[in-house]
Amino acid sequence: MIRAGIVGGTGYTGVELLRILVLHPQVEVSVVTSRADAGLRVDQLYPSLRGYCDVKFTLPELDNLKDCDVVFFATPNGTAMLMAESLLALGIKVIDLSADFRIKDRQEWEKWYGMQHACPDLIAEAVYGLPEVNREQIKPARLIACPGCYPTAVQLGFLPLLEAGVIDGSQLIADVKSGVSGAGRKAEISSLMSETGESFKAYAVGGHRHLPEITQGLQNVAKQAVGLTFVPHLTPMIRGIHATLYARLNRKLDLQSLFEERYSEERFVDVLPNGIHVDTRNVRGSNRCQIAVNQPQGGDTVVILSVIDNLVKGASGQAVQNMNLVFGLDECQGLETVALYP
Amino acid sequence: MIRAGIVGGTGYTGVELLRILVLHPQVEVSVVTSRADAGLRVDQLYPSLRGYCDVKFTLPELDNLKDCDVVFFATPNGTAMLMAESLLALGIKVIDLSADFRIKDRQEWEKWYGMQHACPDLIAEAVYGLPEVNREQIKPARLIACPGCYPTAVQLGFLPLLEAGVIDGSQLIADVKSGVSGAGRKAEISSLMSETGESFKAYAVGGHRHLPEITQGLQNVAKQAVGLTFVPHLTPMIRGIHATLYARLNRKLDLQSLFEERYSEERFVDVLPNGIHVDTRNVRGSNRCQIAVNQPQGGDTVVILSVIDNLVKGASGQAVQNMNLVFGLDECQGLETVALYP
Amino acid sequence: MIRAGIVGGTGYTGVELLRILVLHPQVEVSVVTSRADAGLRVDQLYPSLRGYCDVKFTLPELDNLKDCDVVFFATPNGTAMLMAESLLALGIKVIDLSADFRIKDRQEWEKWYGMQHACPDLIAEAVYGLPEVNREQIKPARLIACPGCYPTAVQLGFLPLLEAGVIDGSQLIADVKSGVSGAGRKAEISSLMSETGESFKAYAVGGHRHLPEITQGLQNVAKQAVGLTFVPHLTPMIRGIHATLYARLNRKLDLQSLFEERYSEERFVDVLPNGIHVDTRNVRGSNRCQIAVNQPQGGDTVVILSVIDNLVKGASGQAVQNMNLVFGLDECQGLETVALYP
Amino acid sequence: MIRAGIVGGTGYTGVELLRILVLHPQVEVSVVTSRADAGLRVDQLYPSLRGYCDVKFTLPELDNLKDCDVVFFATPNGTAMLMAESLLALGIKVIDLSADFRIKDRQEWEKWYGMQHACPDLIAEAVYGLPEVNREQIKPARLIACPGCYPTAVQLGFLPLLEAGVIDGSQLIADVKSGVSGAGRKAEISSLMSETGESFKAYAVGGHRHLPEITQGLQNVAKQAVGLTFVPHLTPMIRGIHATLYARLNRKLDLQSLFEERYSEERFVDVLPNGIHVDTRNVRGSNRCQIAVNQPQGGDTVVILSVIDNLVKGASGQAVQNMNLVFGLDECQGLETVALYP
């Protein structure tokens, strides 16, 4: 059994890791930390876990984590970079769900995240945990930087087009809609149901932190300079991301086949048959990305629709997928679930 | 024109007062206070008010309010009792939407609200602002204690039965469901959309602050000792309260007529025809209470359904109704709106 | 492997059976019927099942079902009673999620369901599939009548009190709130999001079909005549039932212990510790009933809160639990899931 | 008083017309038709109107409408074109909320709407009722074709840019999100809360009927050939449209001033100050379009955000605005409301 620790177990990605890991046949969740709730039983805060988890929250200290085989960071940005080095030194694998190690350009990271990087030496070593791109690098990695939720949905949608070089990469548009759980479990007026329910809005149109992460990922596979306009929106639901992606084709081709072939071996990316639209409910609670390919009126604008559950394939599920790869397990273990519909 | 001031203009009852008052033909909103946002234009925080309100938030100080004819307190409990005396001394009418002056028994109030009452001398003078019961006392009053949202829905449903003495008042049950705006515009995890959306729960089953207020109101009109079990619930919507009220009849009678006659002159209480159920959407945004009377299987249990919009008839609309009475205006002025359906 | 057939696979209980059964280690879903969609692949209608279910809808004819070991009816009322006899004659177990065999009194059934019973001979044999009451009768049964959603939540809440004889059974009140999926996947204006979203209402206050079912179940365990007022409500969410149950105690006792002991061996009924409220989100997608016991102000009114997911413990999950019992499997197989929170 | 008739009074745009008109000081609603509900009191179907509307539904026959000054068609497409000619012949103004007279190219209309046009002679005369573009033509008109909901939000967002000729009109993208009331009050599975709640999806990506209407409107003001990619989405809320519009600038300019000046005299178009995002809740229930102008990272892609309430500025409110113009009233009469927030 793999002994797993979760640092930051009270947020939504933390409790989602618990939901997945307590049923994972190869994992034992041995440590869950919370500075605020140390001493409290985990299932007292989260009654959905009663009968599945009998540990108590502990303080996020090295000594509490030292017997783990793997430690997940489900923390705000800026925490993993303080502890990663010590954990790695103990031979513990680190899977970071926050943004600390996602951006290779340290200055770019510091600009967007507004703090100094506390552990720049590990940035280069960290492997960006998008298995559909980096599977072979992930397997031997010690430190995984799990992609953000928006970046996962957007990259999986654009990748086949950029890898094939069939679009103008300089004028990409990603109009993306997220459920409110993406804002996390934080006491903020802007996330109240009275503020977000029955309403729809864009936010951070001037610039969102996921922009440099997406651009980096797209640039890595593109044969040209990538230019992206990324507009995130908040939609009145809890889980789900729907990316609507626009690009200009530079040649005629069978788009449907391009996508189906690119993802034919991927068990968590599902290209829908021509003419079927994606819907976030069809991936709710599952680790799947579903994609639909459209070419309205047969013109030269391609419209890709890509949906994920932001807490699963966009965070905790993808983290477990990475863990499975790192520990040589079947990539799907613990992740075989059918979306909760309706 | 009546010059109105609003103390605590950034919460939901405050902005709802603004929504109503900026269109009231006899009122000019001259002061809106906010400790946190003083100096900011009101319509910058609330873009829905652009073009209707050009004042800025000011500090909640007596000097800023001294030219008002009426001051509304849309504040947390414990604020109105600190300022009411000074305002009254200036000849300003005070309409308090908080709970400070609702309970006549000071010790009871202090027990439930967990603080010492700062202005006990005014408790007796304050008139409980439920016009359907106290209209004549409201008209000459200087200080109005507006009823809470739950108390309004529950009292209007039970009153005809208790006044007529046709039920056993010792075993009343009020199972009441509220939208989440009742929790206010406060940064609390429990009010996040991720916590309250797509879920339903009871809360404060052991005892809610509105219990003594409701009991006091019912006892005032009852011919017997009142015993009430009150269970509030949170329902995943923003506005609306639905009270389901249960009592045992002690005689046979025409319940429908009893209710229709009791409220025949009331312009904000609407008894639906027999067989039609109430629905919170049918009062959303309006100052109305709609009531349906049921006697399942013709048995001796009466089931009253009573709905209001918690922010209108349950708070700001009722406050304006009181203001109209106090200033000798048509009781409906500024309150003639049709619910927003769908 | 148990070969399972589902009659009526396009409704919400049908697709929920699929969600559970495609991951059940002992079951192969070999037949899914739909009169309207025969010939269509199941996963074309329900893309959430892509990769998990490769059968097509077939017509609901005996010939298509004859190789099944068990057939589930996820049909409107009135269908199972037409086919049950033929299936049983072939040695096939029948698990009916509709109401056809729930009520032992045929005339009562015909009154509430407005049709003649087509198969009265089997009514007596059918076992009411509430394992927490009838486990031993379920195991050898050929025909299971699965409880309705409201009846499951209400009975599990009242049972310990009635079995112990500690309440006045003649004045029970069940104020129950359901998500909209309980109305099924039917094209009806009353179930549109524009009609049910952001609104709350009671319905069928005069009499709901689940009333005789609940009363029959409670009467079976009570030592006295049972009288119940049952008021169902529609709450603006998709899944979940919250029952708020009221009764008068006839003696002093430790209610918390009563409930904990009654359900100590039940793996799908979870009595929360004193002081914790239930919340439908904590059972969403799981086969669990969570119960909280309250005695407001230490009075003689007991308030029981009981939540289930109406599509799981209230329908398809409970059906699989029954199947597990009938086939001698671990009662929990295929049902070990953690609720989807948030 | 203007005597108004509403043909098709049971749908959402019909009941929204009623909500507005019953409070309009210059209008008396004298006829409301419904084929299905003729004979029923309007307020029996819509209890929100109790006390405001005492007419009954009548059959949609000319004889019932002949005393009206104006008739609104809140009908499905294909009805207004059958009755308009007769009504006009009686001197009655016709305001059509359906699509019958919106498209000037008859063949184009017939292609998208899948029927033959029954009244082609009136197509040329009909005035497209977008006052911000056609105010002077609307005033003397006999027949108004009210714009669709999507077309209103999209056109108001793109117009200043196209009129000024500052963008490349051949590569416009409109990514638009609508609440579910846009689908109307029709018994369809796809509009159930269980299908649309807690989920987000695009639809009709291959081609939506509003595409030719939007293109026609944009082309009328553009100095170049217009090419538009229009992707509508369904968002889990009842009211509101949020258009996110993308275009490439062909020169540097002060976009904020361009928009503020273009709409400085428009009372129902509100350009927000730089840096404030729009939110559909801020126009809910009001006849306003709020617009925000963005130029991410100072690049050459302009992002316009435009929100309306689809049932008000996107349908019934705009219809009343047109009526006010046609009858020489203040354009704002009956439309002075503040959005319902929260």
UniProtKB/TrEMBL annotation, chains A, B, C, D:
The domain of life is: Bacteria
- Residues annotated as catalytic: 149
Q: Look up the EC number in the record and give it.
A: 1.2.1.38
Keyword Amino-acid biosynthesis listed = yes
Q: Pathway, per UniProt?
A: Amino-acid biosynthesis; L-arginine biosynthesis; N(2)-acetyl-L-ornithine from L-glutamate: step 3/4
- What Gene3D superfamilies would the database entry show? Dihydrodipicolinate Reductase, domain 2, NAD(P)-binding Rossmann-like Domain
Q: Which reaction does it catalyse?
A: N-acetyl-L-glutamate 5-semialdehyde + phosphate + NADP(+) = N-acetyl-L-glutamyl 5-phosphate + NADPH + H(+)
Where does the protein end up? Cytoplasm
Q: What is its main location?
A: cytoplasm
Ordered alphabetically, the record's keywords are: Amino-acid biosynthesis, Arginine biosynthesis, Cytoplasm, NADP, Oxidoreductase
What are the recorded GO MF terms, alphabetically? Answer: N-acetyl-gamma-glutamyl-phosphate reductase activity; NAD binding; NADP+ binding
The keyword Hydrolase is assigned to this record: no
Alphabetical GO CC annotations of the entry are: cytoplasm
Q: Which positions fall inside the Semialdehyde dehydrogenase NAD-binding domain?
A: 3-141
SUPFAM superfamilies given in the database record: Glyceraldehyde-3-phosphate dehydrogenase-like, C-terminal domain, NAD(P)-binding Rossmann-fold domains
Q: Entry's InterPro entries? A: AGPR, AGPR_AS, AGPR_dimerisation_dom, AGPR_type-1, NAD(P)-bd_dom_sf, Semialdehyde_DH_NAD-bd
Q: Biological process GO terms, please?
A: L-arginine biosynthetic process
Similarity remark: Belongs to the NAGSA dehydrogenase family. Type 1 subfamily.
Family annotation (HAMAP family): ArgC_type1
Purpose of the protein: Catalyzes the NADPH-dependent reduction of N-acetyl-5-glutamyl phosphate to yield N-acetyl-L-glutamate 5-semialdehyde.
Which PANTHER family does the UniProt record give? N-ACETYL-GAMMA-GLUTAMYL-PHOSPHATE REDUCTASE, CHLOROPLASTIC-RELATED, N-ACETYL-GAMMA-GLUTAMYL-PHOSPHATE REDUCTASE, CHLOROPLASTIC-RELATED-RELATED
What is this protein's name? N-acetyl-gamma-glutamyl-phosphate reductase
Q: Provide the species name.
A: Methylomonas denitrificans
Q: What is the lineage of its organism?
A: Bacteria, Pseudomonadati, Pseudomonadota, Gammaproteobacteria, Methylococcales
Q: Which gene name belongs to this protein?
A: argC
